[in-house]
Amino acid sequence: MTIVKDVEARGLRHCETTALGVLLRHEGLDLSEPMLFGLGSGLSFVYWDSKGMPFPFLGGRVKPFDLTRNLAARLGLTLLVEETTSPRRAWENVAALIDAGRPVGLQLDCYHLEYFRSKVHFGGHVVAMYGYDEHDVHLVDTDQQGGAVRTSRASLAMARAERGPMTARNRSFTVALPERPPRWQEQIIPAVRHCADAFLAAPIANLGHRGIEKAAKLAPTWLRRAGDPRHDLPQAALLMEKAGTGGGLFRALYRDFLGECVQLIDDSGLRTGHRLYAEAAGLWTDVAALIAKAGESGDVGHLEQARVVLDELARIERDAMQVLRQL
Fold first, then answer.
1. What is the DSSP letter of 201?
2. pTM score, whole prediction
3. Where are the domains of the chain?
4. Of 14, 74, 161, 323, which is most buried by a Cβ count within 10 Å?
5. Contact status, residue 324 vs residue 193, Cβ threshold 8 Å
6. Is the pLDDT reported for residue 166 higher than 90?
7. Would strands 104-108 and 78-82 be described as parallel, antiparallel, or unpaired?
């Protein structure tokens, strides 16, 4: 058995920030999960629907791995990424790092991981790997999935090689700190501005505050849109609230990030943004509950209520981001 020494196998709320936390703590930088999420400009919104989907997807963050790229650029980290279509090379890439005493991040499809409770394909899942033996690998996943977990090498190979939406070609990555410790406090305002600019200037109507407005407009149609409303709507609500989002479709994480920021920086704009995202986080939880009730009862009235709340959320988040981009 080969295990990397001094790895703190601590699961957090979201998969990508969990993996980044493991890698950065091993390098000597310990930041809270909300700070990792915020410095990575992780907040966003997407309304994604296509004929092949059983139900529209409401996403609350940037694309998989963009958070990692953003954070690395912001803090001056050395981010080394390997991708390959060869299963043999894919294993060699990670085993060599573990043998050298370094944990490694992996992007994969969680469907194949043996410890996962819900068998749903999601190719943007991220874990940290810190050990292996002849049969199994040692991973760190979210607290919800067990934190320090194990799965077979065969299942890991399938998860890493899966093809489909948001997948990568056996992607593995490491991060290293610059020679001088990063002055991460100085990057808070640039990270907030970047997030706000992207949210407000989304190029298509499915993204940002316009995407929330689109979701509001279409919400009353979701009972008719769903193939199996009693399953699909509660499942969508569960993904919004529990599937590694930290609650409130990632708004609780961003609220907590802004809350940490106002303790470090005395700025009225930050305080306003924090107040508005505290409100938004609670309202997104309300929306998820209404969607679940609609599926369980078949009553479109719950979706009419969700439409009203979503319209309010579009306004609140637009106002918050307009303030935050002026910092």
1. T
2. 0.95
3. 2-30+78-176, 184-324
4. 14
5. yes
6. no
7. unpaired
